[in-house]
Predict the structure.
Amino acid sequence: MIYISPDSVAERFMRYVQIDTQSDPNSTAHPTTEKQKDLSKLLKRELLAIGITNAVTDEYGYVYATIPGNSDKKNIPAICFCSHVDTAPDCSGYNVKPIYHRYYDGNDIVLPDDNTQVLRMSASPYLEEHLNSGVITASGLTLLGADDKSGVAVIMEAALFFMQNPSVKHGDVKILFTPDEEVGQGTAKVDMKKLGAQFGYTLDGGEAGSLEDETFSADAATITVNGVITHPGYAKNKMVNALKIAGAILDALPKNEWSPETTEKKQGFVHPVGMNGIAEKATLQFIVRDFEDEGLELHHNRLKKIAEDVVAKYPGTSVEYSFVEQYRNMKKVLDKFPQVAAYAEEAIQRAGLVVKKESIRGGTDGSRFSYMGMPCPNIFTGMQNIHSKLEWIGTKDMAKAAETVVHLCMIWEERS
Ligand SMILES: [Zn+2]
């Protein structure tokens, strides 16, 4: 019987969320904000304090630590547990004041610092699962930061459990905390050799029991339109304004399909995210998403054709299309190592939960790790309404996630 106390994880979590670690999409530095290191340094100190003597941080804000294996078996793969220290730029993470609703009674929770912010069971039905147990919210002016400080707290709690229960057998357990996940830079400066893990799990998911082993494949595309420029006073029948052509390209996109606002589940999309330019030259930025790499290719071809058809109507102008890879669906990699997700399912069940297998309409650090040699699905922590002032988390979900981590290490040891 493995038991981790919700109150203990809650206390830890509430300490971590009070540290502002918002990342910055406009920074090219690593980490994108220095303040993320405040939490990284604290985590290192706490790991050292519980006896994990090899815990280190680096100049980029990563934390690495290993709990050495204690099993007689020598062939157990090293398993990494990873979460990110930063919070999303979408919502303030400054001066977060977490509130612990120790026995949630089902009534509306009015957040005290802005009473227009009300958490209601009707809008957040998952709250019903947490009646009479602990729920943590922010105070109304900020996000909570459960994404992903719940993952940090879960991993730290599991680490403490291993240090206090040496009779529980496991192989090498690798702990990794990353900066800048929310701005797509979570794996940019990671040292996979230093990490030295064969398989990994991110703790960065929602409802209790959920396991995500599939993400989007993602590219960024750029359309550049070259217009024809003259003095505006003498432009008749000569000038062709690139900004207007760019507008026409946006207008030519389908209205009822092929966009984030019209798709769900396994459907892909293209999504304009930026427009820049002057009369002479304009660029449109898109993100392109699909679960299949072949689907991405179809999206690129279709988008390019739409742009070319529009530009063809304007003599003397031209268009260029380019794209870069952002990340790829982890499923392709994970299918080669079916035990990684299978053991996670078993661990979730041993923790007394029902497995909910899901695919993410987005990416995780694990998408990139999976292609960097460390297959890495995503495990729940319980986080809800992320990136918003109504973000909340149930404390029993965090405790169950920590128990899942412990079971998972035990399963890897048993099966090796
Ligand atoms: Zn996250």
